[in-house]
Specification:
This protein is mainly β and 124 residues long. It has strands at residues 3-7, 10-13, 18-25, 33-39, 46-52, 58-60, 68-73, 78-83, 92-99, 113-114, 118-123. Strands 2, 4, 5, 6, 9, 10 and 11 form a seven-stranded mixed beta sheet that branches. Strands 1-3-8-7 form a four-stranded antiparallel beta sheet, with no helix packed on it. A hairpin with a 4-residue loop joins strand 7 and strand 8 (78-83). The chain is globular, with a radius of gyration of 13 Å. It starts with a strand and ends with a strand. The mean pLDDT is 94.
Length: 124
């Protein structure tokens, strides 16, 4: 079993930055994919970014590419999402998730483990 806890959300002005952290407990294997998703009220959960636990391959949603960076520290069992040049449309609850299969990296249904989420609010 894997447990995930997000932190680092908050209220920022448009153009500002935040760094989200996802602390994982339990065993994470080299084939796992770690991802970030977000959900605004009344909207579907959407993919943001993903990274392999072993390797540097990453995936980004077009809406955040060039502004957000996903990274990890395997020794600390922690995944990060650095968010720069934030826009009001980035406002959402952000969730960390783990995908044991390594398949469907941008699809939420392939992720078996989820954190509780952290709120990010960007004001104009």
């Amino acid at each position: 079993q894997v447990q995930l806890v997000e932190s680092g959300g908050g209220l920022v002005q448009a153009g500002g930055s935040l760094r989200l952290s996802c602390a994982a407990s339990g065993r994470i294997f080299s084939t796992y994919v770690m991802g970030w998703f977000r959900q605004a009220p009344g909207k579907e959960r959407e993919f943001v970014a993903a990274i392999m636990w072993s390797g540097a391959n990453t995936n980004y949603a077009d809406s955040v590419k060039g502004r957000f960076t996903i990274s990890r520290d395997n020794a600390k069992n922690t995944v990060y999402l650095q968010m720069n040049s934030l826009k009001p449309e980035d406002t959402a609850v952000y969730y960390c998730a783990a995908n044991p299969s390594g398949l469907g990296r941008i699809r939420a249904e392939y992720y078996d483990y989820w954190g509780q989420g952290t709120q990010v609010t960007v004001s104009s």
